[in-house]
Design a protein that fits this description.
Immunoglobulin-like; TATA-Binding Protein; Coatomer subunit beta-1
Length: 265
């Protein structure tokens, strides 16, 4: 390899290490991670690009001064709820008329629990004696960023199912009328792996039971049992039970399933 190729290889390794390379990263995926933090009529407009690197969340906040005044001591004040911790408080800035500023904020994640980041933008201007506060929209951290499909034996699944103390039970409520189609939808929505053999799911008998399993980046186990029955009117009924050693996974995964199970998208 030439010196140039070696340097490119090192750069690629660095990008992988810092999370810049994401396999399915495309324009649509990037846009889905841009969150509007303030309204269009607010004197300061802000939006955040959220990047998740396992234990770290990076907020790249763009702040735009939409007033005709220079804003002084402008500060992005953030607070967290859940197992999230702000690494350092962003510094103060002076923002000229109709100019913009990129502010980065780093947040550490310590467990797989749906957390919330909220805060304000505070600034001073010459024609207002006291500091002005613009309240930001909340940023909800998605549990799916921390869960990946995993495999375990049936015996291990049963042992964990018996041992885990946290259970969340979600009633099936969906417009999907095909049992296998509903199972596939839940697998896709929860980013889990189906442990039940395909041969056990093939027959059309009006009943379906399947076990799903996933692990978090923190080594936590997530177990799901899906039991559904087709009613005489064609609708599906039953329950989705989630078990975990931690309350955060059981509640967050239950909320995700409740939100996603109704439709087919």
């Amino acid at each position: 390899m030439s010196q140039l190729e070696l340097e490119d290889e090192v750069q690629d390794d660095l990008k992988r290490a810092t999370g810049e390379f994401v396999k399915d990263e495309n324009d649509a995926n990037k846009l889905s991670r841009v969150l509007q933090l303030t309204g269009f009529s607010d004197p300061v407009y802000a939006e955040a690009y959220v990047t998740v690197h396992h234990y770290d969340i990076v907020l790249d906040v763009t702040v735009i001064n939409r007033t005709k005044e220079t804003l002084q001591n402008l500060c992005l004040e953030l607070a967290t709820m859940g197992d999230l911790k702000l690494v350092e408080r962003p510094q103060n800035y002076t923002l000229a008329t109709e100019s913009s500023k990129q502010i980065k904020a780093n947040i550490k994640v310590s467990s797989t629990e749906t957390g919330v980041i909220f805060g304000n933008i505070v600034y001073e201007s010459s024609n207002v004696l006291e500091r002005t506060v613009v309240v930001l929209n909340d940023i909800h951290i998605d549990i799916m960023d921390y869960i990946s499909p995993a495999v375990c034996s049936e015996a291990a699944f049963r042992t964990m199912w018996a041992e885990f103390e946290w259970e969340n039970k979600v009633a099936v409520n969906t417009v999907i009328q095909d049992e296998k189609g509903f199972l596939d939808h839940i697998i896709k929505s929860t980013n889990m792996k189906c442990l039940t053999a395909p041969s056990a799911l093939e027959n059309e008998c009006g009943f379906l039971a399947a076990n799903l399993y996933a692990k978090s980046v923190f080594g936590e186990d997530a177990l799901v049992n899906l039991s559904i029955e087709k009613q005489s009117d064609g609708k599906l009924s039953g329950y989705i039970r989630i078990r975990s050693k931690t309350q955060g996974i059981a509640l967050s995964l239950g909320d995700k399933i409740t939100l996603k199970q109704k439709g087919g998208n």
